[in-house]
Design brief:
Layout (H helix, E strand, L loop, with lengths): L23 H21 L7 E4 L3 E5 L9 E5 L11 H21 L4 E5 L15 E6 L17 H15 L1
Antiparallel strand pairs: 1-2, 2-3, 3-5, 4-5
The structure holds guanosine-5'-monophosphate.
């Protein structure tokens, strides 16, 4: 069948049956995938609760349910874009402005000594929710968290130069 297309309504649940028959494992996979796809939209639409700290017409910021450090906040656009390379510049500018304000609030009100701002793109980069978001993570001296920042080295200076040239070409 040419051009077969599946789309999921936000209330669709494969565990409740439907138009096509698949195994239970597939149903569980589809159910999880469907939920993963929509978790931030559900927060935007107030279908699931979140501790919201900031909202304007285009942007929402709320507490991450699994904080790296307590106070960890997510900043998202209300409209879903993903990944960063597909996100309009003005949307990105709005997100980073709000992230900056949240970082300041974490330092001023939570007493954070520093802040990590992180943005993951793709499962290879650790992204779980395919809706662009900035993590704003307050950091405290001696908070015990360590990033697995395992710095490597280039085989030789030419290897680094070659990669730099490729990136420069991509910017042309
Ligand atoms: P990613 O790995 O995609 O960069 O980050 C996704 C983040 O969303 C994770 O830090 C995770 O804890 C958070 N998250 C996932 N589901 C929920 C949820 O239902 N509510 C909230 N508040 N955060 C969530």
């Amino acid at each position: 069948m040419a051009g077969a297309h599946f789309s999921f309504s936000k209330d669709w649940n494969p565990l409740h049956g439907g138009a096509f028959s698949v195994s239970r494992d597939w149903k569980i996979f589809l159910f999880r995938y469907h939920n993963r796809m929509n978790i931030f939209e559900k927060i935007v639409n107030r279908e699931i609760p979140a501790a919201i700290v900031y909202e304007d017409e285009d942007i929402l910021a709320f507490m991450d349910i699994g904080p790296i450090i307590k106070g960890h906040t997510l900043v998202i656009p209300k409209t879903c874009y993903d990944p960063i390379t597909e996100t309009p510049d003005d949307v990105l500018a709005g997100l980073i402005r709000v992230a900056k304000r949240i970082a300041a609030a974490q330092m001023n009100e939570l007493g954070a000594d520093g802040v990590n701002i992180i943005q993951n793109n793709g499962t290879a980069a650790g992204q779980e929710v395919p809706h662009i978001h900035f993590h704003v993570i307050p950091r405290f001296e001696g908070d015990g968290h360590h990033w697995n920042w395992n710095a490597k080295s280039y085989d030789d200076p030419e290897e680094m130069e070659r990669l730099a040239e490729k990136i420069k070409k991509g910017l042309e």
